[in-house]
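Sequence in, structure out. Go.
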Amino acid sequence: MVKMKHKKKYHLKNNYKNILFILFSSILVIFMQNSKFLKPIFKIYNEKYLKKEFINESKTLNKSISQAVFNDDIKLSETTNKEIIYDDMFFVKEIKDDKPIIYLYNTHQGENYLKKEGTEYTPNIMTTTSYLNEKLNDKSLPTIMETKSVSKVLSDNNWKYGYSYRVSRSFINDVINEYPSIKYLFDIHRDSGKREHTTLCVNNKCYAKLLFLVGLENPNYEENQKYAEELSKRVNNKLDGLSKGILQKKGKNVNGVYNQDFSNRTILIEVGGENNYLEEVYNSLDILSEVIFEFIKEELNNGL
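Output:
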């Protein structure tokens, strides 16, 4: 009995030590992350980690898409209520704020851009969306970006590539339930076509052209269209010709909704094409982020 008592005391003492160690470690990590001297080191580490993740994700997605059936316009009415399988290792990446108002995602995560000579990997749409995510957060617009794998969910559920909008719809539903503060949703895509059709060059600086897509089978599409038209107009006010305008889609073999029925501030934007370089895309996103910032700032100031 005496030995048992000592053993219990010993374990209790160890537990206190463990708790104190964990508490001290947590405080130390928080201090290091917020230190003006050590913060740049954490930033470099995170950027390298994200780059590695994007490289791995790009390889997986490219392989998946090359084997897929390209019917990406399956109508919403054709989807089912079947439970979707997720993997807990994929998550919504939150950058700065507990109450984000912007959600960036990519229904087609494997859309690539031109690989620059001498670089290690082929940049894709998630690379560019991460850049936009950073730009918006830097402008004090709380933004999160979806990093769950669309291709993995498709594979786990034995769905073809055409059901990608079903997957992104489930992602939207989850993130809105988790963050009711989200009001602005952007599905970022890459267009396709010849370089001269997707590129604008002004004063020896080239940009990837933007295109706003509106699904006319959304019952309330008029509001989304007004929103898209306003963003497109503001983009062209900053650089004439950067936006190619509005593409409307409906009818047979077309999705027609593109998940824009979630709110009147949900929009799909095509950024450049497969013949654009990352630098050209970034040049366009610099302008787009300014337009988004100015538009949202006005809405918030007007209490909308």
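Check: Residues 2-34 form the longest helix (33 residues). The chain has eight helices and nine strands.
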